[in-house]
Amino acid sequence: MSNIREVARLAGVSVATVSRTLASPERVLPQTRDKVNAAVKQAGYHPNLMAVQFRSRKTANLVILVPTIANPFFARVISGAQQAAQCAGYRLLLCDTQGQEAIEREFAELVPGHQADGVIQLRAFDPFLGHPPGSATPPIVNACEIIAGTPYPTVSLDNRGGAQAMTRHLIDLGHRRIGLIKGPLSSPLTQERLAGYQDALGDAGIEFDTALVHHGDFTLQAGYDGATALIQGPHRPTALFCENDEMAIGALKRIKEAGLQVPTDISVAGFDDISMAAYCDPPLTTVEQPAEDFGRHAVHMLVALIENKPLAERHVQLPFTLKIRASACAPAGAGR
Amino acid sequence: MSNIREVARLAGVSVATVSRTLASPERVLPQTRDKVNAAVKQAGYHPNLMAVQFRSRKTANLVILVPTIANPFFARVISGAQQAAQCAGYRLLLCDTQGQEAIEREFAELVPGHQADGVIQLRAFDPFLGHPPGSATPPIVNACEIIAGTPYPTVSLDNRGGAQAMTRHLIDLGHRRIGLIKGPLSSPLTQERLAGYQDALGDAGIEFDTALVHHGDFTLQAGYDGATALIQGPHRPTALFCENDEMAIGALKRIKEAGLQVPTDISVAGFDDISMAAYCDPPLTTVEQPAEDFGRHAVHMLVALIENKPLAERHVQLPFTLKIRASACAPAGAGR
DNA sequence: GTGAAAGCGCTAACAA
DNA sequence: TTGTTAGCGCTTTCAC
What we know:
The structure is a homodimer of 336-residue chains. With 336 residues, the first copy, chain A, is α/β, with parallel strands linked by helices. The first copy, chain A, folds into three domains: 4-56, lambda repressor-like DNA-binding domains (434 Repressor (Amino-terminal Domain), Orthogonal Bundle); 61-157 and 291-319, Response regulator (Rossmann fold), CATH 3.40.50.2300; 159-289, Response regulator (Rossmann fold). Chain A has eleven helices and twelve strands. Chain A has helices spanning 4-11, 15-23, 30-43, 49-56, 72-88, 101-108, 159-173, 188-203, 220-231, 245-257, 291-306, and strands at residues 61-66, 91-96, 118-121, 140-143, 154-157, 178-182, 213-215, 239-242, 267-272, 285-288, 315-318, 321-323. In chain A, the strands form two sheets. Chain A has a six-stranded parallel sheet with strand order 2-1-3-4-5-11, with helices on both faces. A six-stranded mixed sheet of chain A has the order 7-6-8-9-10-12, sandwiched between helices. At the A-B interface, helix 4, helix 5, strand 2 and helix 10 of A face helix 4, helix 5, strand 2 and helix 10 of B. The structure holds a DNA duplex (16 and 16 nucleotides).
């Protein structure tokens, strides 16, 4: 592999001039520049980025920790992040952590290790937990699922408000027995959505019934299983609110298999508005999240942190939108 | 930020001993090791990975270029790659290129730039195209969609065979007019599948009709649009073969909107077997690909390349499986 | 505008 | 087993 010294020799200039030509060509005479460029081509020279970054102590790398990229919602978040990173002159190092703390820690370690400038965490776990307290916290932004009481900047959705709005929508349609297919207990996000669900129930004077709540893990299968549990028995719910679209689609399948109609027999609602939501049968009523904006905002904030620019807000909250489609309607025999 | 020298001072040893303690503790006396470890903790020391890798000329980074991580099939490929990389002691740098050559080139540049040891390309584009011919080709493996006539090692599916098998399956069910919703013209993969489709038609003595072919871009919307075009007119096909599951699901929606039944009026088949395929209505008959294996094999081959180990095979071909579900059946009025 | 030279933090001979 | 020392390839003063 050729190095800067060889290029300098070929061009008949000093290494400093080669370095300057590459970094700030305007500080070099055109004729010198041409000589250098010719030498670069001739030598097949590629600057050793390792050395460049080592020397200039700037990596232009951002790490993003994603619980699972198989989740289409996260795919959209990443897409937004990638765009914003590109614009800001950073590369995005994507890491599918499979929700494993060890992997999250390992990748986050790239930051104190000078291999990346900052990290975006999309899950409620602090990858720097237990770091030497003396050192300043590395640049990090927490988005989507927020670590309770975290000092880090955050980008979040009003999950409680979103769940409340959707539950209220179902109540307004005339539903009184609304099943809830939740995410895992450990997720703060799912606790907030449960709270929103309870808020709406409370407002309508409907008693909260734990028998109507089922825990899943955000997968299609979990929705299927949740529906199985909730629709059996004599007094089944007239609507099912699922905490993400994939579980809702899983539930849809199970309900149809039971010989019931959606929405006439049971209404179904989701959360996220993944692209599939508009294509399933019936199209899914859901809570839309501006997924790409999570990524975009997180990157902007992280870059500000890294470059020591002031942060406009430390805690950004993004708006949700109720997306009314055909999977939810008034229950059979509703008074209104 | 503390450095190795400070740790050495704190521990009362030389920098070499600190370096050794970190890299190969067994070459250092236990008591020395303890002193060093204590000093590391006290100093809040994190090795500067930039310097480590710069000096030892090994990054343990692998770049994977993905056309779009929003595609659930690629998500599975990545998942397999990540696993294999982890096992082999490498990090995977994921890059969503959005199919843009400029982005692919930029990330591939990390390899000659010594910032990554090799690259996996999942699309039929050579990111090192036009590289100085003098220099040896950087370690690269081409998987999924293969560059025509590439000298690189590859991991591929028998796309032609897969498409032929599915088309034959539809013919065996009694279909004679089979619509094809293809990927973009530019994709080699889609040309192979077209060839397989034509093979099966030829074997059955059915004439190829270009009016039954529609070009899409692998999105839900493309399937929807393709179905719109193909099901209108008096002599519509009795089956639709889509080159991926997402287009098949898009087609499903359109067919139902037209008041037709799947599969009784029109059968639908897909390709890939994404998780959603089993959950749509009706469940999708499709060609299953071992997605995770693409990633796994690609990583294994790339690591072999990087570490100068012999490659068992330069061109791995993975098996497909016909996944028969409910979206395809014999056409109405079929003789058998 | 260009060159000489110092040194980033670390590893790896080699010496002790 | 441990220390000394010479760089890895580059950027960046500071002279000229």
